[in-house]
Amino acid sequence: GKFWAMATWYNSSAGQAPYVKTVLAPEQGPQGSYSAVSLYDASYFNTMIARLHNFDGSMVAGGQAYYVEVDDRLSSYPVATAAQMMDTAVARAAAEAYNQNAAPGTRAMVLSSNLLTPIDNVPALKHYRLVHESPTNVVPAGAGWDIKYVKVFEYVPGARIQGTGVIALDLVSNTGRTFTYKQASTDGEFIVPYSTTGSPYEVKAAGRYRIEGTGREIDVPETAVMQGLQVG
């Protein structure tokens, strides 16, 4: 993708460094052989780029991350000396404890190895809906990431639905990709960006909104999304 370009436009001196960490990790094979890997800070998953392009504006659950110890003295890039997958809270506590007594030039970080696996819960965007995506993928088919190279979103007022919990809607994009938009309620209400009927776009709902665990389903007309009306 082009995250590095967007981050550089935002801050030319920092670039993507606050969000994506390049770490040298030991390779299997000859001793002293390393490869550069990109790992993602929690802040990466809170950018609009990640929330829209990676997650289609949906809420996504976090909860696990890599606890990584690095040595900054061995190379121009930090060299990983230890790494372990942990629950996020455990990893953060371990990193804090390590950094309080770290030797000079060493430190611990909490990172994700996958741009689709956030460290913390990522809330839904309530006013953005996908309206078109390109047929080409960011990575080759079979790599496990079905992220299209270009996605176009529209900002809408959003329809209002009274309720609590998590609301979900299955969708099909113009390329045939299926995905589910989810949102947690705020103050007893959902504000949803997709209509289930009357959408003028090729990205279509594959059914009705459902509030998980309740059996309740709601239809949302296009007029409600465009005018911010309450439904259900």
Structural class: alpha+beta
Shape call: elongated
Number of strands: 15
Report the end-to-end length measured between terminal Cα atoms: 39 Å
Q: How much helicity do the residues have?
A: 10-25%
Mean pLDDT, rounded to whole units? 93
As for the number of domains, it is 2
Number of helices: 4
Largest sheet: 5 strands, antiparallel
Strand content: 25-35%
Instruction: Outline the low-pLDDT stretches.
Output: none
Spell the H/E element sequence: HEEHEEHEEEEEEEEEEHE
**Which value, in Å, is the CA radius of gyration?**
21 Å
Overview of this structure, please?
The chain has 232 residues and is of the alpha+beta class. The chain folds into two domains: 3-111, no CATH class; 128-231, Immunoglobulin-like (Sandwich). Helix content is 15%, strand content 34%. It contains four helices and 15 strands. It has helices at residues 3-10, 48-54, 88-100, 222-227; strands at residues 20-26, 34-40, 64-71, 79-87, 106-111, 128-133, 151-155, 159-162, 166-172, 178-184, 189-192, 204-205, 209-211, 216-218, 230-231. Strands 9, 10, 12, 13 and 14 form a five-stranded antiparallel β-sheet that branches. Strand 3 (64-71) and strand 4 form a beta hairpin. The radius of gyration is 21 Å and the shape is elongated.
Give the topology, please.
Blueprint: H1 3-10, E1 20-26, E2 34-40, H2 48-54, E3 64-71, E4 79-87, H3 88-100, E5 106-111, E6 128-133, E7 151-155, E8 159-162, E9 166-172, E10 178-184, E11 189-192, E12 204-205, E13 209-211, E14 216-218, H4 222-227, E15 230-231
Parallel strand pairs: 8-15
Antiparallel strand pairs: 1-2, 3-4, 3-5, 6-7, 8-11, 9-10, 9-12, 9-13, 13-14
